[in-house]
From TrEMBL:
Pfam families: F5_F8_type_C (PF00754). The keyword Glycosyltransferase does not apply. Keywords: Signal. It comes from the Eukaryota. This is F5/8 type C domain-containing protein. Residues 24-184 form the F5/8 type C domain. SMART domains: FA58C. The keyword NAD does not apply.
Amino acid sequence: MSAHLLRRLLLLVYLQTAASTPDCEELELSPLITGPDGVKDDQLSASSIYSSAYVAKESRFTSEIAWCKNNSDPDPWLQVTFEDSQTIFAIQTLGNGARFEFVKNYTISYSLDGSKWNWFTSGNGTIHTEIFRKPSYSLQFSGNVAPSIPVRNDFETPIVARFVKLHPLGYYEYRSVRWELYKCLNLDCEGPELSPLITGPGGVNDDQLSASSIYCSSYVAKESRFNVFYYSCETASGSVRGHAMTTINDVTNNDDATNNDGAMNNDDVSQL
Ligand SMILES: *[C@@H]1O[C@H](CO)[C@@H](O)[C@H](O)[C@H]1NC(C)=O
Ligand SMILES: *[C@@H]1O[C@H](CO)[C@@H](O)[C@H](O)[C@H]1NC(C)=O
Ligand SMILES: *[C@@H]1O[C@H](CO)[C@@H](O)[C@H](O)[C@H]1NC(C)=O
């Protein structure tokens, strides 16, 4: 294989890595509780029930009533137990199907093994309110404003869990709630389309690359291009090679475009 062909191949592999960022503009969601891929009644449980009518299986979206906690329960929760761990992208809630009762806000906890539980927390920059729940902060989700109008919350970071609990907080009349959790079917949908600024069709000329100094005449600034096969410069401080990129489609989330570690990682390229 000629060096030229090898370089082209490396560039191609690199560009494909850059383009495969899983960033769904529009998630294709599929229900995990009620529907063809849903759970059985005995996979729904709760900390307590208000009466024999308001059992956990009535928390399905198709129920004519809802699940509701017992009046004497100080720490109520509604739980779903999946057969295998799921990657959950969103939650949607409804109130009571027969009465004007609904949950105004709630938190979520989840577990992989059923014994170690995590509160769903936010990273920085979230629009949700964080409330303190020992031993950490958890995210307070917006619930319903009327029993029959569904309200959906998308998780900024999908939950990977086999067990998920909804903990009702604020409510109107009674903590009656129906819920649905969603997985995503189009995980591999196209992310931001990235195009290189330094090397490639729209790239710069060699004389547009400069440096403060060179180790020796082989290691000049133009050798900082991504498609240069031999690039390692063993100085005491090591060599640095970067690659700036521009986005050519309409990207709303700049972080994904500038912080694409997978594409920028030199190790990935040198191992090809
Ligand atoms: C609800 O709590 C009360 C008081 O603790 C208890 O007497 C009642 O049996 C409970 N109801 C149900 C349906 O669990
Ligand atoms: C948000 O950022 C601040 C300041 O950097 C930090 O103190 C805080 O712990 C961060 N909160 C979360 C939830 O990461
Ligand atoms: C959420 O619920 C808590 C606890 O009932 C309540 O104090 C708070 O005001 C509620 N927040 C909103 C935004 O409704």
